[in-house]
Write a structure and sequence with these properties.
about 130 residues, mainly alpha, globular
């Protein structure tokens, strides 16, 4: 049985995730138009090379292990969404770095960097605005 506190955390998490998706969509459209970034043909993001694939795999495994092992502790002390947005932030930063370093013909790294900035702003807002 869920108590009111757990339900409010879930509702807050859903609202923040929807907010992130919405802001990311509109900022992404602006960034792609402003810097003339071509749309990706694939819906999923594919790593650029083997090193990038290994880094992405390591990040995903670290996120899943952290979510499982810290899940109960995080839910009791802080909202688990902080952990999720921290993962989005780190993942977007790594993708921006790899795009900048290995796909020099495109400006896709700017789009990835904007995603990281949005996640960073949300992370900072958790600590600035009282709950």
């Amino acid at each position: 049985m869920h108590n009111g506190g757990e339900k409010s955390l879930i509702v807050e998490a859903l609202i923040l995730c929807l907010f992130y998706i919405s802001v990311n969509f509109f900022v992404g459209r602006y960034v792609k138009k402003r810097w003339d970034i071509a749309k990706r043909k694939e819906w999923l993001y594919w790593p650029l090379n083997r090193t990038h694939a290994l880094i992405e795999a390591f990040l995903m495994i670290a996120f899943l292990v952290g979510a499982v092992t810290l899940g109960n502790q995080l839910l009791g002390n802080i909202n688990w969404v902080y952990y999720l947005f921290f993962f989005f932030f780190i993942s977007s930063l790594i993708r921006a770095l790899m795009e900048w370093k290995y796909a020099k013909t495109d400006n896709i790294w700017i789009s990835q960097l904007s995603e990281a900035a949005i996640a960073a702003v949300l992370l900072l807002s958790f600590f600035v605005f009282p709950r």
